[in-house]
Amino acid sequence: MKNFKKFAINRVGLISISSIGIGLFLLSTIEIGRQQAKFEVLSSKFTLSGSSSGNKWVLAANSVASTGEFEFRDQELLNISELTFTIPIQQLKCSNHQQESMLQEILIQNNCTKLAFKQEHVMILPIMKMAHVIGGFSMFNGAYNIPMQLHYELNEDRSLRIWGKQVVSLSAFGFKIPAYEVGKIDDEMELEIDFVLVNKREGRTNLFVWNRSL
């Protein structure tokens, strides 16, 4: 009997996992069972990094609004669908508060109040434990299709980790650095995501809902 498992991230950080088992009953009846369990985001991190005047800077958010479904069979990733994430610019923080304010001001003054990604295509590379995801990345006044190489690990404790990074160019979004701000921020920036999903528990009880039909 083959098992199909599906993780789904929702915007409040809960995950659901679905398993569908199909088997023959008395050689004539097909029995379909559907199992759902809630998962939660143990940790999520988004970083945006670049350089200004030769100095590297990093803006980070430790809580990311996201959605997505990850389908597995026999510990192998089959598909990713509806993957999205959104980060308000003001949620991005830096250890250097002066640099943080300067970077946020440049972005917000140029109509960049949030960063958002929405999946359009995916290609799974199971041997490499990678997924090549292409989607629209929204920044400033437009969206630009970018590829993201995501790595994944499905652990024995049923936790799931997904991480990846991608370089983006400000000019690709039609943003031209004003002459008076040249040197404050370079054209290329790198974005990085890292999620860890774990089984959601209340006390000692897993939140399973079992639906079975004939």
From TrEMBL:
Transmembrane intervals: 12-30
Sorted UniProt keywords: Membrane, Transmembrane, Transmembrane helix
Protein name, UniProt field: YceI-like domain-containing protein
Organism: Pedobacter insulae
Lineage: Bacteria, Pseudomonadati, Bacteroidota, Sphingobacteriia, Sphingobacteriales
